[in-house]
Amino acid sequence: MERxxxxxxxxxxxxxxxxxxxxxxxxxxxxxxxxxxxxxLAALRKxxxxxxxxxTPQAVCQFTGLxxxxxxxxxxxxxxxxxxxxxxxxxxxxxxxxxxxxHPVLGIGALGSSIVQLAPRDRxxxxxxxxxxxxxxxxxxxxxxxxxxSSLTRLIADIYVADFRSEGLISxxxxxxxxxxxxxGLRSLSADEWRVHRLYPARQAHKAAVQRGRQADWKAEARAxxxxxxxxxxLAELLDARRAFLAAGFRQPTAAALQRTLGxxxxxxxxxxxxxxxxxxxxxxxxxxITICGAVAPYNAVLGGKLVGLLMASPExxxxxxxxxxxxxxxxxxxxxxxxxxxxxxxxxxxxxxxxGVASSQYNRLRMPAECxxxxxxxxxxxxxxxxxxxxxxxxxxxxxxxxxxxxxxxxLPGRPVNSIFGEGVNPKLRKVRSALDLLGxxxxxxxxxxxxxxxxxxPLARNFxxxxxxxxxxxxxxxxxxxxxxxxxxxxxxxxxxxxxxDNPAVRDRVEGHALTYPVRHGARVVLPPVAGxxxxxxxxxxxxxxxxxxxxxxxxxxxxxxxxxxxxxxxxV
Length: 575
Fold this sequence. Notes:
Elements: E1 5-7, E2 10-12, H1 21-32, H2 38-47, E3 50-55, H3 68-76, E4 90-97, E5 105-113, H4 119-125, H5 129-138, H6 142-157, H7 162-166, H8 172-176, H9 180-199, H10 203-212, H11 218-222, H12 225-247, H13 255-262, H14 265-283, E6 287-295, H15 304-311, H16 315-325, H17 331-337, E7 349-353, E8 367-369, E9 380-382, E10 384-388, H18 399-412, H19 428-439, H20 444-447, E11 455-460, H21 465-470, H22 486-502, H23 506-513, H24 553-574
Helix pairs in contact: 1-2, 1-23, 2-22, 6-13, 6-14, 9-12, 12-14, 15-22, 18-19
């Protein structure tokens, strides 16, 4: 990426997409001399003019010829956290600055599939069993009774059962009126299929199906041991819930029937089962996590990260996600149904966490009146803190440790309990670590506590996001409508709210100017690599030599200049 390439008659590299801090700092100094108000804002609009650029697989930067995917990955490597590829849905974005030549990269952002289990977030949304049942008991309406019945019917219908019928495990009538023996038979089959899958995981076959996507043979995938295990397990739980509803007299969706069901322990447990599966159907489709969000140097010094955070709430981002996955079969749902399941994306909520346990300066008090983006007066877009993680996970286990733990699992267990196959289960690394530590007799619950809890933030995009995430609404009603200039209006709010004030700080302007593109490049947006001998070239060889301590500073400077001149002359003569 740093190697120069000829593009449209000009030598280009990733450095072409970095803004020289000296030039930006000078422009900000001039703007700071202007009085606060329209004149200063007009000067700043000419200095920084952000816009969003969606990163697609084949897209190329018009100024450098570099793939946008590679540009995004390059700047991602400047983050403090390691870059790891994650499964699931994802959309990447660049924030560019059209106010400077070559439209340098101001920041990067990314959406990824949401974390499935996050207790404070789920409690706030209304996905937790305790709060959900309490709300139903307080108001058991006909609407909720209809939701419960239709949700269970749809969940059962989305499971492929043709092989179960042909094998005599279930009949058509068992789906409407299941018996206890049918449920037990399905659970026994699930245990057998999990055992076979762990002995013969067929990783390459599953990965090939994921890669084929639209052209996958979903019936063949459904009949694989992994999805036979999941289908029989899920169907057993859902049919058991139906048995509980029938036993409680819940045959018609009425408020009285719902109230009777809530009054029975088995009925309440059945409602909890339906809620859990409804959540699983929406968590990966109608909400996403902001996995990457921040500015690159020199824009980070002027709070460019807050701009990138606000732009993640832009309708342009939601539209890019919806367009990318509209009509795309859901891998796991299609493998469970034996047919392509295309869930219409309805992005209604974003989630994220702080990088550390303290309040994130990037997300802290980050809010914008919806009216500034073209929405209703009185509403706002806001990053809302809803709690903290418990500081439990596996990121503190190194790759070397993981290799050893995988050997432990391979030696001690028949087959592989965790195969990192999409659809096998969430967080395979965590499950591997726990299984291996338990086998070694080590306290996994203690060792998985990394002691670094993070703040959980949510960013509602639609005023009916709770109805979307619970399956009671089919279309999101966004706070900000999708209009051609919405992202520009968000950038304008950031410019007035943060940039116009930030430039009054001389230390901030000094930090901006410190990111120069002079050779050798020490720009803050450059990926830091181990030093390589001779990397700086012959002009700087003399400067790299040890300096005699006794020499005065004047003498040192003279010797340096003499060395540079000699090297330059030698280079010129050789050329």
